[in-house]
Specification:
By secondary structure, this protein is an alpha/beta fold. Strand 7, helix 2 and strand 8 form a beta-alpha-beta unit. Helix 6 packs parallel to helix 7. It is globular, with a radius of gyration of 21 Å. The mean pLDDT is 97.
Length: 425
């Protein structure tokens, strides 16, 4: 057997000192630290005792290109992904034009390869309906053939249940699944935050938790009736969790995601009309946050995503009711999740499951388990490092995050994809 062309020595892998041997973009072997020193190899890197983690997968991002490049473009979004530890990202279709044609998919791939020829990789999510208008299905076979890995109307939920049923069936015909933005299109229309104590204090219209849970219930019933998988996006409240838990106990093929912000922050963060905390679905109550934490630990929630939604600064510097929803998440997500590990809310194994193995399994994406033949996609993570979140330290064009001015734990020091270092600090 031919030897390695790269050895990354002296790393901690699942708490044990190891040397990682790489050949032709794949993991060749993992040996005890020091054993790699006797192996002939032209390129060696000292990992400095840092954690070696598999490169992460973000199954829900908004990269804005084509059409909204002033907020973010594919090149800048992938820069933030590389620095944040994400080797694969799944951009949603709400671009301008909408990603509902093979030509748009190919344009996105071209832009990604031009800017980042060695990755991170985009795994596009095709529009579920033409123009995301919810009236006619998008050409799903064309989108799948062009490289889409799922379908979604994210941002504009499909209210037509018959159309949504057909979408699930046609997606299944392509071997793919639908990601649903779980929001009733009528409940909470015009709302800007969670309906509750804080919305009353601020005097603004709220969005009830039932708005999410009603759509979750519909999707579960369809998945059960059709025996077709469905994936539920950015779950935020207890009512949804109970429905998902009961469905999984019955064997319904449903999977679900949430975001770090629903595990950390609640509606109180909008005090003072804080537009940086305005997201959709909205931040809920502390009781919901605690329920979400339990659900992530026990597997009711399958994966974490960022729902990275960058906006230009001036777009958030307006009254709360006028500000767009969303926060920029690729730069901060791993540090926020590691903070939950430090708190004891999650384990290091949970972090890898939520950001790597589970999304890889759900969307049939390659993952690195550090076994021979796995893609040599990994990050070197410093758990002792901390960093201040500033406009300058963020790599995304979008600086819209409540984390601005705070110090976060842990940092990606290097990112390897196919054995190529695509990012280092």
């Amino acid at each position: 057997m031919s030897g390695p062309d790269l050895i990354v020595a002296n790393v901690l892998l699942e708490g044990e000192p190891r040397d990682v041997l790489i050949r032709e973009k794949l993991i060749l072997d993992v040996v005890s630290s020091g054993q790699g020193s006797s192996v002939p190899c032209s390129t060696r890197v000292d990992g400095g005792g840092l954690w070696a983690l598999p490169s992460l997968i973000d199954a829900h991002v908004h990269l804005r290109e084509p059409g909204l490049e002033y907020k973010e473009d594919i090149a800048s979004g992938l820069r933030a992904a590389a620095g944040g530890g994400f080797g694969q990202v799944m951009p949603m279709a709400n671009t301008d034009p909408v990603n509902d044609s093979g030509d748009t998919v190919r344009f996105m791939f071209d832009q990604a390869v031009r800017a980042w020829p060695h990755g991170p990789w985009i795994r596009p999510v095709g529009g579920l309906t033409k123009g995301l208008q919810g009236r006619e299905l998008a050409p799903m076979h064309e989108l799948a053939s062009a490289g889409c890995v799922a379908f979604s109307n994210d941002g504009l939920p499909v209210g037509d249940t018959e159309l949504f049923r057909r979408a699930m069936e046609y997606a299944a015909d392509q071997g793919l699944r639908v990601i649903d933005h779980c929001e009733d299109p009528f409940l909470g229309t015009g709302g800007v935050m969670n309906e509750g104590r804080m919305s009353g204090l601020l005097g603004v219209k709220g969005i009830p938790t039932a708005s999410e849970a009603v759509q979750v219930a519909r999707d579960i019933l369809l998945a059960e009736y059709l025996n077709i998988p469905v994936h539920l996006a950015h779950i935020s409240c207890l009512e949804s969790l109970e429905l998902i838990r009961e469905a999984k106990n019955r064997g319904v093929p449903v999977t679900a995601e949430t975001c770090p912000h629903y595990l950390l922050w609640d509606e109180e963060l909008l005090a003072g009309y804080n537009t940086l905390a305005k997201v959709n679905p909205p931040l809920r109550t502390r009781r919901d946050v605690e329920g979400m934490r339990r659900a992530v630990r026990d597997g009711v929630i399958d994966i974490l995503v960022t729902d990275h939604a960058p906006h230009a600064e001036h777009e958030k510097e307006v009254p709360l009711c006028e500000a767009p929803n969303g926060l920029s998440g690729l730069d901060t997500a791993l540090s926020l999740t590691y903070g939950l590990v430090q708190e004891g809310v999650l384990s290091p194994a949970d972090l890898i499951r939520l950001w790597n193995t589970a999304p890889g399994a759900i969307f049939s994406l390659p993952v690195n388990g550090f076994r021979p033949g796995d893609p040599a996609d990994f990050i070197l993570f410093d758990p002792q490092a901390s960093w201040e979140v500033t406009r300058e330290s963020m790599l995304s064009k979008g600086k819209n995050t409540p984390c601005l001015g705070t110090t976060l734990p842990g940092r990606v020091m290097a990112h390897y994809l196919g054995g190529v270092c695509v990012f280092s600090r």
